[in-house]
Amino acid sequence: MNDDGLLVAHELNKDFGGHRAVDGLSFSLARGAIGGLIGPNGAGKTTLFNCLAGHLKPSSGTVTLDGQPIGGASPSRIFSAGLARTFQIPRPFPQMSVIENVMVAPTGQLGETFWANWLRPRAVAAQERRTRDAARHWLDFVGLSALQDQPARVLSGGQRKLLELARVMVAEPKLVLLDEPGAGVNPALLDQIVDKVGVLNRQGVTFLIIEHNMDLVMTLCNPVMVMAQGKLLVSGDAASVLRDPRVVEAYLGDVDDAGDVDGSGSARPVGGASGTGGTPGAQGTAVPA
């Protein structure tokens, strides 16, 4: 395994009683990559994300970010180290404005301490202005600037995912974990999310994405890692991974009956939905849940 990546996991395990949800998983994600993480429901993908982001403590194994150990650290420490995470179902603070939801993300703000508000009010105010300016920048980037003063409860599901992207970017992360950015999002907003991820990646941000939409994975992700029963089954470029008989068997059971490869050797859409090609939309190919 290449050990000079931005994010490196080695022999990572997570046990729940007698069940091993993540089983001896090792991988290295290079700086500047957009990695994809796919696999059937129950494969351990979300558990892995929770271990990487600090929401769960690994039972054993190591995780490093930019050479620094983060395995078992708190979510706040890992976030401060440069790893940010979004969730499949965004939960903004509904009564706070959209811009306030973004402004709460940066850590170590002076205004969070009691005495600084009394002893250093100018410094607190100056930092808040900088944070507000940064929040406005990222809301404009994701196309939500017109809604910045509205309560977050008015946002649609897709807009809430864009809000989450703005909220993590205001903290200037090195690596962003995206949990199913395409789930429940209409085609226009999904295209916008894909475009923004591509722009951010070209600016140097690394991504690891859990996703069931195969058009999105084929368009954005390299490498693609496949999990099954807690293990890393295969890793490589999207086309070769989707043709791998082990991947077909993990999703559909019997390789001989799966029929995922046509006579030319090209991958067919998995799951019965027809792919759109090019930039993915909500009607893109979906892997079976």
What is the number of beta strands? Answer: 10
Low-confidence stretches: 254-289
Order of helices and strands, N to C? EEEHEEHEHHHHEHEHEEHHH
- Radius of gyration equals 20 Å
Shape: globular
SS element count, helices? 11
| Mean residue pLDDT | 84
Q: How much beta, percentage-wise?
A: 15-25%
What is the SS-derived class?
alpha/beta
Strands of the biggest beta sheet: in what spatial order?
Answer: 6-7-8-3-9-10
Percentage of residues in helical conformation: 25-40%
Topology (elements, then pairings):
Elements: E1 7-16, E2 19-29, E3 34-38, H1 45-53, E4 60-65, E5 68-69, H2 75-81, E6 83-85, H3 98-103, H4 114-119, H5 121-142, H6 157-169, E7 175-179, H7 187-202, E8 206-210, H8 214-220, E9 224-228, E10 231-236, H9 238-243, H10 245-252, H11 255-258
Parallel strand pairs: 3-8, 3-9, 6-7, 7-8
Antiparallel strand pairs: 1-2, 1-4, 4-5, 9-10
Helix pairs in contact: 5-6
Detailed description of the structure:
Helices cover 36% and strands 20% of the residues. It is built from 11 helices and 10 strands. It has helices spanning 45-53, 75-81, 98-103, 114-119, 121-142, 157-169, 187-202, 214-220, 238-243, 245-252, 255-258; strands at residues 7-16, 19-29, 34-38, 60-65, 68-69, 83-85, 175-179, 206-210, 224-228, 231-236. Strand 4 (60-65) and strand 5 form a beta hairpin. Helix 5 (121-142) crosses helix 6 (157-169). The model is unreliable at 254-289 (pLDDT under 50).
